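Appendix B, example 12.
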Amino acid sequence: MSDLQEQLSRVEANLAGATSELAMLSAKVAGLRAHRDALLLLAEQQATAEVTRPDRNLRTLSKSDAIVEVLRSAGHALSIPEIVQALRAAGRTSETYGGVSVYLQNLLSQQRVHRPERGRYVPGDGQAG
């Protein structure tokens, strides 16, 4: 075998080993990403569980009052998806983004909620309930 053929054989062997190592590392990276995503989801669910501990039973309240109660219980500004998730977790399973959005517009005009920043809501001064 010539020197070039020996070098080519070594390079091909190294390439095969590196390709195998790359496949194993890619699988490891995919597993770590899945683990990270699961932890992020769990953290989000735990944060929502903390938000959905209102002082009152949300199922017995009007939709407007339930939204204000979720915001009051959260203690920080929430987005519409977070409000919907909190309402659903509290047993109001039919709540939707669109429905909550419409009610928030009405609550804003009544000053029962405020929007401190785009897409985030807090309870307002004129809370009825």
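The longest strand covers residues 113-117. DSSP finds four helices and two strands in the chain.
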